[in-house]
């Protein structure tokens, strides 16, 4: 059956227009006015409503086995929660354990997800160990058969997922070579591991130890390092869960220098701050444990939204990875054993609307950009996803900007029993969610079966990500200076009178090489200046 959405305002990331939308066979057929309507078309009235591209959450961990537990939002519960909140696609992470290979882990995740997903999904692959086989498998994973175009590296979680700088750099070079986007969890894992032990020895065992062991400077330092290394590998970089001002500043500084770096704040970081870790109720404090932690600076959430508004940060995600209160109690006597993770996939759209559009910081088009279309562009599925136009997948939300709701674990669709946004009133309510042409959420009811969602393979060498990088590669060719070394042979000191140096300097070949040299010199100098500047900024924080 076809579907017609009438009288609403269609919002894309670059324009808004009053138009009707006709959907047939899961695809958008028409956007406009006065086109012929097929028989048996269901009509949805969207008067006073916006019609938005379905949300894309580029960072989730459904049913992730982590810290001895398994995240309780599996691919069924988690993607239902997504749809109830107006998100029609997720990008989840395959995370191989240190003794497994990327290909093995890929099959495992597909087998978990395919029968359960209720919305569409793509996968990103974490690289948790480094060797030639991993490099080979990365290449294989970017072929159409596997459909992966991004790889994530952890600079934290020492002895679990963390890679060393040398391994990270090899990984970045491989990403650049195969046209894949590198993503990074940026915190200094070595220092955190030491701080954790120090705090435990001092008797700080509660969730407040989590934030004290992971100082914001350690996120800022690792973010700056990751950007620097990515620049050295000429590889585009995507920094996941930007939680602090220092990390955001490092990204902005590199973007201003022309680096291809994307920064992703998450719903938790846009609406909550780190004061929760000091709550006297252990379960409450533990519920907010995620890494990097929420910022202890209460102004950080607003700053992150400001940076999203001016595109110094680029898109929003959730890092949805939920554990029940009883699972969190694994760390009752030791904060390092509290499973890390919070909810977000259901409430992200409303939280971003509230803090962005309702707060007067962004318009509905920017809202579409940071909740949907930028993710579609970065992961190379635009305009199939993230846009309302003929030919695109019919993933849409009928959004009521004037309605409000109060977020609560009593009414959410997550499998967890705590909601970090509990009690928050949000403007902007997804009234109807349509996923590939099917009305899956309406009147507060979900109507979707396990497995309705599909895996969306994504291709490497995305122009949105690699366009500038490819051009830059030409200017980064190594430079060799031709010199006449005959006179230096056999360690002989050339007689002063016989010096040929001045004549060889006038050699026209050499001049050409030397003048080619200049752009490279400047490049190096600007990177050096940048590192100094960023370091100074970090110190003055
Ligand atoms: Zn994550």
TrEMBL record:
Keyword set includes Metal-binding: yes
EC number: 3.5.2.2
Cofactor(s) the protein requires to work: Zn(2+)
GO cellular component, one term: cytosol
Region (Disordered): 490-526
Modification(s) after translation: Carbamylation allows a single lysine to coordinate two divalent metal cations.
UniProt GO molecular function: dihydropyrimidinase activity; metal ion binding
Domain Amidohydrolase-related: 51-440
Annotated positions of the N6-carboxylysine modification: 152
GO biological process annotation, one example: pyrimidine nucleobase catabolic process
Biased composition, class Low complexity, residue ranges: 497-511
Alphabetically ordered keywords of this record: Hydrolase, Metal-binding, Zinc
Reactions this protein catalyses: 5,6-dihydrouracil + H2O = 3-(carbamoylamino)propanoate + H(+)
Family matches, as Gene3D superfamilies: Metal-dependent hydrolases, Urease, subunit C, domain 1
Family: Belongs to the metallo-dependent hydrolases superfamily. Hydantoinase/dihydropyrimidinase family.
Quaternary data: Homotetramer.
Name of the protein this chain belongs to: dihydropyrimidinase
Organism, as annotated: Acrobeloides nanus
């Amino acid at each position: 059956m076809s579907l017609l959405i009438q009288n609403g305002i269609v919002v894309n990331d670059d324009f808004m227009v009053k138009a009707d939308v006709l959907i047939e066979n899961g695809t958008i057929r028409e956007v406009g006015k006065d086109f012929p309507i097929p028989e048996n078309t269901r009509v949805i009235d969207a008067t006073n409503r916006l019609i938005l591209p379905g949300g894309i959450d580029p960072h989730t961990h459904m049913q992730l086995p982590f810290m001895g537990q398994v995240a309780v939002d599996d691919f069924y519960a988690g993607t239902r929660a997504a749809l109830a909140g107006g998100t029609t696609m997720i990008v989840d992470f395959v995370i191989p354990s240190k003794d497994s290979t990327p290909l093995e882990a890929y099959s495992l995740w597909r087998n978990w997800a395919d029968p359960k997903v209720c919305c569409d999904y793509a996968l990103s692959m974490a690289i948790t160990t480094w060797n030639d086989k991993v490099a080979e498998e990365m290449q294989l994973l970017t072929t159409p058969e596997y459909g992966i175009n991004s790889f994530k590296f952890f600079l934290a979680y020492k002895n679990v997922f963390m890679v060393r700088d040398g391994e990270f750099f090899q990984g970045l070079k491989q990403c650049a070579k195969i046209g894949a986007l590198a993503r990074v969890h940026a915190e200094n894992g070595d220092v955190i591991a030491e701080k954790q032990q120090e705090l435990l020895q001092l008797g700080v065992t509660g969730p407040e130890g989590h934030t004290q062991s992971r100082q914001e400077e350690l996120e800022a330092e690792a973010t700056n390092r990751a950007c620097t290394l990515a620049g050295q590998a000429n590889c585009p970089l995507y920094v996941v869960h930007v939680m602090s001002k220092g990390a955001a500043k490092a990204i902005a500084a590199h973007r201003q220098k022309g680096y291809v770096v994307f920064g992703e704040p998450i719903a938790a970081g846009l609406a909550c701050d780190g004061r929760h870790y000091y709550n006297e109720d252990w379960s409450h404090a533990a519920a907010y444990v995620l890494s990097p932690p929420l910022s202890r600076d209460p102004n950080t959430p607003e700053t992150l939204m400001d940076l999203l508004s001016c595109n110094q940060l680029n898109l929003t995600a959730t890092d949805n990875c939920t554990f029940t209160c009883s699972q969190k109690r694994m760390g009752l006597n030791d904060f390092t054993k509290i499973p890390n993770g919070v909810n977000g996939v259901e409430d992200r759209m409303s939280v971003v609307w509230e803090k962005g559009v309702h707060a007067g910081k962004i318009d509905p088009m920017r809202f579409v950009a940071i909740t949907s279309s930028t993710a579609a562009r970065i992961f190379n599925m635009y305009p199939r996803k993230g846009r309302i136009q003929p030919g695109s997948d019919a993933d849409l939300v009928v959004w009521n900007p004037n309605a409000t709701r109060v977020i609560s674990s009593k009414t959410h669709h997550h499998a967890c029993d705590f909601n970090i946004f509990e009690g928050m009133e949000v403007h902007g309510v997804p009234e109807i969610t349509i996923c590939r042409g099917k009305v899956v959420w309406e009147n507060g009811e979900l109507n979707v079966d396990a497995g309705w969602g599909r895996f969306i393979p994504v291709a490497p060498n995305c122009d949105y990500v690699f366009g500038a990088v490819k051009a830059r590669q030409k200017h980064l060719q190594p430079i060799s200076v031709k010199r006449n070394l005959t006179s230096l042979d056999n360690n002989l000191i050339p007689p002063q009178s016989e010096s040929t140096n001045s004549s060889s300097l006038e050699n026209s070949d050499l001049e050409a090489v030397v003048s080619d040299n200049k752009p490279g010199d400047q490049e190096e100098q600007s990177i050096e200046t940048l590192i100094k500047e960023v370091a100074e900024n970090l110190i003055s924080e």
